[in-house]
Each structure stands twice: as structure tokens, then as C-alpha cells.
């Protein structure tokens, strides 16, 4: 059994910064791709940023230059540093990871519980 545990969400003023963390735990052999998604009320879930095991990254156009995704392979943790936050960044943020279970099982696409980020004055 594996799971993702998120932390770091909260309320921040426009122009402020916030850092999200998400750690994978359980019977892990290898964590492959990791990513952050977000979903605002009335909108579809969208990819915010993704990162490969060797550090190749991709970003949504709306956050490019403001957000940075990174990972610590030793701790099976992914981070999202969010700077210059705007009200339109308000959403529930979800972490995602593709995990190979120890014992030779198939890859598992695992989601975190979601954490609320609110940008408001």
C-alpha cells in the first residue's frame, strides 16, 4: 500500500509565496513521474507542473516563470514553490505520482488528498 501526504496549503495575499510538499510512503520500489494539478470551483482539473526522476520539468503557461517544481528522490518527495501568486491561482492543489510497488507489481497512479490554496487580500 502506498499513499501521498500533502502539506503547505493555506491563505496568502496577492504577490505572496507558498510552498507545497507531497511525500510518498509505503511499499515503494521506485517513484517515477511526479506532478501537481489544481482544480478551481466550476473548472476542470488542470496540470500545473510535472517532473521526471532525472529532473526534466514542464509547466502550464499560466504559471511559467512563477512556479517551480522540484523533487527529493531520497525522500520520495515533490515540492511546488509558488511565487508572485495571483487570485486566479486559487484552487485545490493535488499531487500525483506514478509508483512502482516493491515486489514487482504494476505501476500505480496515486493521488494526494488535495490542499486548498487561497490567494486573497
3D architecture notes:
The chain is an all-beta fold and 121 residues long. Helix content is 0%, strand content 60%. It contains no helices and eleven strands. Strands 2, 4, 5, 6, 9, 10 and 11 form a seven-stranded mixed beta sheet that branches. A hairpin with a 6-residue loop joins strand 4 and strand 5. It is elongated and about 50 Å long. The model has no long low-confidence stretch (mean pLDDT 96).
> Helical stretch count?
0
Question: Which class of secondary structure composition applies to the elements?
Answer: mainly beta
| C-alpha end-to-end distance | 41 Å
Shape: elongated
Count of DSSP strands: 11
Topology as H/E string? EEEEEEEEEEE
**Rg from alpha-carbon coordinates:** 14 Å
Which range does the strand content fall in?
A: over 45%
Q: What's the mean pLDDT score?
A: 96
| Weakly predicted, low-confidence segments | none
Helix content: under 10%
Major β-sheet profile: 7 strands, mixed
Amino acid at each position: 500500500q502506498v499513499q501521498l501526504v500533502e502539506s503547505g496549503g493555506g491563505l496568502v495575499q496577492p504577490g505572496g509565496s507558498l510552498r507545497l510538499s507531497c511525500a510518498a510512503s509505503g511499499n515503494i520500489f521506485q517513484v517515477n513521474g511526479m506532478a501537481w494539478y489544481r482544480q478551481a470551483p466550476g473548472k476542470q482539473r488542470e496540470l500545473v507542473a510535472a517532473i521526471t526522476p532525472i529532473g526534466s520539468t514542464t509547466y502550464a503557461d499560466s504559471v511559467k516563470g512563477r512556479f517551480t517544481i522540484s523533487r527529493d528522490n531520497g525522500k520520495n518527495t515533490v515540492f511546488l514553490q509558488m511565487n508572485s501568486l495571483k487570485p486566479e491561482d486559487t484552487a485545490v492543489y493535488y499531487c500525483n505520482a506514478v509508483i512502482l510497488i516493491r515486489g514487482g507489481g504494476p505501476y500505480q497512479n496515486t493521488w494526494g488528498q488535495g490542499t486548498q490554496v487561497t490567494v486573497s487580500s
